[in-house]
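Quick note —
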Amino acid sequence: MRFLALFNLVKTLIVGVVLAAISSAALADVSVGQFADKRATLSDDKGSKADNPSYIGTLYGGYGWKTGEADEAKPVADVVRDHVVTALSSHDITVGNSSTVVSGIIAALDSSAYHNREAEVTLQVVVTRDGNQIYTNTFRKKIEEKTGFFTSNGAAWSSSKHRDEVRLCAEHALDQTLNDVLSDSGFLAAIK
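Predicted structure written out below.
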């Protein structure tokens, strides 16, 4: 009799743990819409280029002269959307076909390298449900990464390695910005 009572107790506990795991495994079910690239077109040596939606950063040499640009393999709007999907999925949020849509506007996403790599992100995140906006917030992040890829006079060369490092700096800033989004209680409440 004791064995049967103990068995039923263990079975109940196991079922409870499994049900709790299933219910917390997927925090929400959302779709990811488009992130419009509204980065300002700035001067010729800094800022996004209207004719190059893949532009992500600039490398500077001695005396601050531009030595090259870094581009993504696809438009920045697509890169941001991919990072949003990855960030949501990594926080146990199911991304699929839902009436709750996460989208937004890319106001700034730029990086540069001179003495250090620097990146800046301004991302407006919007959540809609059944076409009605239920959340909006703007997230900003600036980061600086100490570098070790400069010449003896402190200037960055424009090699593919250096362009990749500038691109990755921008993506690190984007990922940190998305961590801020996923830490925002208003955002989490909106996607539930």
